[in-house]
Amino acid sequence: MPLPALAQLDSTRSSLHRASQVISAVRAAVTPPLPNALRLSLYPVPPGLSTGPLAFGGDLLLDYAQQKVAYRQPGEPDVTIDLDGHSQATLTGELLALLAEEGHDIHLQGDQLRDDTPFEIDATTASEYAAALDTIFTAVARFRARLVGPQTPVVVWPHGFDLSTVWFATSGADEHHDPYMNFGFSPASPGFERPYFYSYAYPLPDGFEDVALPAPVRTISEPFKGMVFDYDALLSLAEPGAEIEALFSAIHYGVSELMTGG
Asked: Pick from 111, 88, 106: which is nearest to 96 by CA?
């Protein structure tokens, strides 16, 4: 299916982003440290985002299309909170109260999740964004499956609200020490008003800027050094997932050779 245009994304994206930080904070509070800070991430699922299994059982789902947060336990009916009428701050309070009623007293660390801006979510846009993210996740997962070497799962990071996976160029798999490439999708970030795909390498290999790449990929130096291609450039395609795979594969082929020596 073609990608949706997502023409009026800003307020819906911002609201879903803030809501995602609430369920991520719960996951982080009850999850032991994981490599590459993965306890801070969320898992893309067809309705939206999930914490994955929590230490006390069940998971939390942020359902984009239904505009709800649900606490799901196997064999039990979902317990839900409508996002309508909430802000990040009030959603946090109601979710912690809901979990306490279920027997799970969660204490969040630090001064966080206090944004009191009311959520503004357009149901159609939220549903379209869920569909777009599912197409992108599937394409990135297929691309990732063809890579050889250590990798991180395809996750969404609530800090920036971007989806990404990391491929390591050596047998080591620590982003703080080992060379890697990151491949991802962002609905917006400083310097990018519209959704885009990105890749960057660490450390940046010599000759990075000279790698020959197919359109619409371009190399940038600000606000980061890497390669990007625009979501909007794929809107006319009948099978955008195949193009996302192909473009990320071309980036990986060209840059990984520089990192590994061929």
From this structure: 106
Contact 236, 2 (CB under 8 A): yes
Cα atoms in the Cβ-side hemisphere of radius 13 Å centred on 118 = 4
Q: For residue 14, give the 3-state DSSP assignment.
A: helix
The segments of the chain whose pLDDT lies below 70 read 110, 262
Q: In sequence order, what are the residues at sequence separation of 6 or more whose Cβ sits closer than 8 angstroms to the Cβ of residue 35? A: 173, 174
Look-up of token digits 């970030």: 189
CA distance 160 to 165: 14
Residue 153: other Cβ atoms inside 10 A: 15
Reduced to 3 states (helix: H, G, I; strand: E, B; else coil), residue 71 is: strand
Tokens at residue 183, please?
A: 């491949």
- 57: Cβ–Cβ under 8 A, 6 or more apart, which residues? 73
CA-to-CA distance for 35 and 37, rounded, in angstroms?
5
Q: Given CA atoms 166, 170, 174, 175 in this order, what sign does their dihedral have?
A: negative
Pick from 88, 87, 25: nearest CA to 60 = 25
Burial class of residue 22 in the structure, from the number of CB atoms within 10 Å of its CB (0-12 exposed, 13-18 middle, 19+ buried): buried
Q: How far apart are CA 182 and CA 101, in angstroms?
A: 40
pTM of this structure: 0.95
